[in-house]
C-alpha cells in the first residue's frame, strides 16, 4: 500500500476545542501518516489523500476564526501541531506548515478588510494554500492594467502546487520596486505547475517550478494596498521569523519520528553485538548512551523552540503596534533555535543508524528518508548566517535588518 486511499477512512467526529485536544488530533493524524510512509516516499505520488486527511482532521483551519468553523488557535500551538504531523511524514508536515504560513499571510500584509475576507472564505471552504514566492528567482513582473494587475513570470519552487486550492503569488510592479502579494485559484489556465520536483528528500511536497502567465487580480485584492498604495507596518516583516519557526517545527518533528521509530526497531529487532556480553540490544551500554544522548539534545531544542514561540506571541497579538526592536529581538531568538534545530535534526537522523544495525539499511524500512528529508530542506538558507545574526548581536549589539531571509 502506497497511498492513503488504500486504508479505511479515518473519521474525526468532533472539532477539538482546547490546545490539548488539538495536539491529540495531530497525534491521530501522525499515526495514520506513519503507516506506509516509507512506501509512499518511494512512490512519490501526489499526496491528494494526505491533504484531504489534514482537511478532515480540521488542521488546515487551525488558525481560522471560530465563527467560521476554524480552530481559533495561535502560532505556538500551530508549531507543535506541525511537529507532530512531521513526525509521521516529513513531507506532509512541511505542506501543513507552509499552508498555515500562507493562510496567515493575509494577517501579515493585508488590510483589516482583506484579513476578514480571506480568513472567512479560506476557513469556510477549507482552502489549502500553496505559494510561489521564491525570492532567489528573478521577480515575477506585475503589470498595472487599470482596475486590476497582471502577473507574468516563473518561479523555481511552488510548494503545494497540485494539491493546493489557492496559491499565493508575489511579484514586482513593473518599473518600480514595489512588491505585491495576492491569492489566486491554483487551477486556472494562467498557472502551469511543471511537476518537476525530483529531489532526494521531502518528495511529497509538490515543490516543483511554476509558470505564471497573464494571471489577473483586482487591485482591491492586492494585499495591503488601498488606492494602489501600500500601507506598511513593522509586522509585515514577520514573515521570516514565522516561516523559520515553521521550518524548525518540521525539522524537529522529522527528528522525533526518526528517533522514536529507531527506538522501536532497537527494542524489537536489533540484535546485541556478539562480543558485548549482553543478551538484549537495549541492555548494551553504547545503545543506552546513544539514545540518551540523542533524546537529550532533541528535548533541549524542542524546549527552546516552544519558549521562542511563546516569546513571539505578544508580537502576533500586537500586530498593528509592534516595534522594530521587538521584531529584531524575536528574529535573533528564532535564528538561534533554527541553528540548533538544524544541527540536532541532522545528527539525530544520521546517528540513529548506529543503534539499528546493518539490517536496518534495507530500502523497505526507509530509515534513510528521515535524514534525506532534513538534509534537503535545511539547505533552504545557510544556517551559518543564522549564527552570524546571533554573533553580531552579542559582539556588536546589532539587530538583524529585515530581509527575505533575516
TrEMBL record:
It comes from the Bacteria. Residues 29-116 form the Acyl-CoA dehydrogenase/oxidase N-terminal domain. InterPro entries: Acyl-CoA_DH_C, Acyl-CoA_Oxase/DH_mid-dom_sf, AcylCo_DH-like_C, AcylCoA_DH/ox_N, AcylCoA_DH/ox_N_sf, AcylCoA_DH/oxidase_NM_dom_sf. GO terms for molecular function: 3-methylbutanoyl-CoA dehydrogenase activity; flavin adenine dinucleotide binding; monooxygenase activity. GO terms for biological process: L-leucine catabolic process. Keywords: Flavoprotein, Monooxygenase, Oxidoreductase. Residues 245-380 form the Acyl-CoA dehydrogenase C-terminal domain. PANTHER family: ACYL-COA DEHYDROGENASE, ISOVALERYL-COA DEHYDROGENASE, MITOCHONDRIAL-RELATED. This is Monooxygenase. It comes from Pseudonocardia halophobica.
Amino acid at each position: 500500500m502506497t497511498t492513503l486511499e488504500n486504508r479505511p477512512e479515518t473519521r474525526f467526529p468532533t472539532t477539538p476545542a482546547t490546545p490539548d485536544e488539538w495536539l491529540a488530533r495531530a497525534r491521530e493524524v501522525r499515526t495514520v501518516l506513519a503507516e506506509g510512509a516509507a512506501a509512499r516516499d518511494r512512490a512519490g505520488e501526489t499526496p491528494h489523500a494526505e491533504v484531504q486527511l489534514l482537511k478532515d482532521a480540521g488542521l488546515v483551519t487551525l488558525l481560522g476564526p471560530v465563527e467560521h468553523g476554524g480552530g481559533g488557535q495561535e502560532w505556538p500551538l500551530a508549531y507543535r501541531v506541525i511537529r507532530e504531523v512531521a513526525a509521521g511524514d516529513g513531507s506532509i508536515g512541511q505542506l501543513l506548515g507552509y499552508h498555515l504560513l500562507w493562510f496567515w499571510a493575509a494577517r501579515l500584509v493585508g488590510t483589516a478588510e482583506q484579513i476578514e475576507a480571506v480568513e472567512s472564505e479560506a476557513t469556510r471552504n477549507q482552502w489549502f494554500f500553496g505559494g510561489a514566492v521564491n525570492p532567489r528567482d528573478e521577480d515575477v513582473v506585475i503589470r498595472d492594467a487599470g482596475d486590476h494587475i497582471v502577473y507574468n513570470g516563473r518561479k523555481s519552487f511552488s510548494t503545494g502546487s497540485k494539491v493546493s486550492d489557492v496559491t499565493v503569488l508575489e511579484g514586482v510592479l513593473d518599473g518600480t520596486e514595489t512588491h505585491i502579494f495576492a491569492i489566486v485559484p491554483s487551477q486556472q489556465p494562467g498557472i502551469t505547475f511543471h511537476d518537476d520536483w525530483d529531489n532526494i528528500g521531502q518528495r511529497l511536497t509538490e515543490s516543483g517550478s511554476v509558470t505564471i502567465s497573464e494571471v489577473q487580480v483586482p487591485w482591491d485584492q492586492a494585499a495591503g494596498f488601498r488606492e494602489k498604495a501600500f500601507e506598511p507596518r513593522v509586522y509585515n516583516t514577520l514573515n521570516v521569523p514565522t516561516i523559520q519557526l515553521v521550518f524548525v517545527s518540521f525539522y524537529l518533528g522529522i527528528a522525533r519520528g526518526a528517533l522514536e521509530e529507531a527506538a522501536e526497531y532497537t527494542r524489537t529487532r536489533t540484535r546485541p553485538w556478539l562480543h558485548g556480553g549482553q543478551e538484549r540490544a537495549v541492555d548494551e551500554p553504547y545503545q543506552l548512551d546513544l539514545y540518551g544522548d540523542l533524546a537529550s539534545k532533541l528535548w533541549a531544542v524542542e524546549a527552546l523552540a516552544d519558549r521562542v514561540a511563546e516569546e513571539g506571541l505578544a508580537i502576533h497579538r500586537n500586530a498593528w503596534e509592534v516595534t522594530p526592536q521587538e521584531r529584531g529581538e524575536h528574529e535573533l531568538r528564532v535564528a538561534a533555535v533554527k541553528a540548533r534545530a538544524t544541527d540536532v535534526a541532522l545528527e539525530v537522523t544520521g546517528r540513529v543508524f548506529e543503534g539499528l544495525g546493518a539490517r536496518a539499511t534495507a530500502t523497505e524500512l526507509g530509515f534513510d528518508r528521515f535524514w534525506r528529508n532534513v538534509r534537503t530542506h535545511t539547505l533552504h538558507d545557510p544556517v551559518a548566517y543564522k549564527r552570524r545574526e546571533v554573533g553580531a548581536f552579542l559582539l556588536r549589539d546589532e539587530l538583524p535588518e529585515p530581509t527575505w531571509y533575516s
